[in-house]
Amino acid sequence: MQKIIDKVIANVRVSDDDYRILDKTADFHTLGFLADTVRRRKHTEKNVTYVVDRNINYSNICVSACKFCAFFKAPGDKEGYLLSFEEIGQKIKETQDLGGTQILLQGGLHPDLPLEYYEKMIRFMRETGIHVHGFSPPEIHHFAQISDLSIQDVIKRLMDAGLGSIPGGGAEILSDRVRQLTAPKKCSADEWLKVMTTAHELGLRTTATMMFGHVETREERLEHLRRIRTTQDETHGFTAFIPWPFQPDNTAFADVEKTSGFEYLRTLALSRIYLDNIDNIQASWVTQGPKIAQLSLAFGANDFGSTMIEENVVAAAGVSFRLSEQEIKRLVRDAGFTPRQRLMDYSLVN
Predict the structure, then answer these.
(1) pTM confidence score
(2) Does the structural domain 45-341 have CATH classification 3.20.20.70?
(3) How far is CA 254 from CA 69, 70, 72, 79, 170, in A?
(4) Alpha helices in 127-217 (DSSP H)
């Protein structure tokens, strides 16, 4: 253990075996200390960033039917919806009136909408001046299938329409065993990574996520982190990593025990220690609430995420925390840091 501690303090990359030892035997405070060491080395100023944005889920109609999702509706379901451009425009205006700079745009894998529809949607949104952080890798993979185009061609067309960056949703756990158990109709781990590497090669920045605490093993969590770290070594395209725990209520895995705040903070710290090539780690107050998110700032997180003016997917699983920009600022200050509003690329506002 002391050798691993010395490596982290000396800014030497930890190995997979080092990670396993930390995961199995390191106490809570040691993990926090090491993660905070990495965080402070990467972020010498006492800033904690956040972004003012809104989630717009343009449709809940989805053919993937992931077992962990409480949000989707099957095609033909009377509760399925597709937002009009007018409704999207109103949501953007409300966001901008609150100082928002971007929209996190995601939806289900709709079986009937052509690629041209999404291009038109982005062009409409970009006319407002908002940054579009949109379409997770499963959506882009789906667009490629329905349009019979390559991933590269799809991303190029979306970029030409005004897409500004890609969120890291749909990663869950990058293990095909897990994906077959939870979302067999969704893109594979390799396909998720192909979308991201292609985006990075085209100059589009993205984030990466990990949804943990369902059917995966601890070794599969490490596999996920390894694949993210390896990809970042090759492309340097991820701006941030966001680990968050699975919310089981109202899903096919409703009997799965919820991840505790203790386990969340351990996983967050392990992610910060292992992912030495990703600058920013984001806290998940949406799933953990404000107090655990505040503690996250001592366990490796340097970013408080989004104000989430609107959030639907996690809320569908029965978890509905809400924080205003002023509340985020207060929580950050009370933890001893300086709150700073940022853009998607982590450049600061004002």
Answers:
(1) 0.92
(2) yes
(3) 11, 10, 16, 21, 19
(4) 137-147, 151-161, 176-182, 189-201
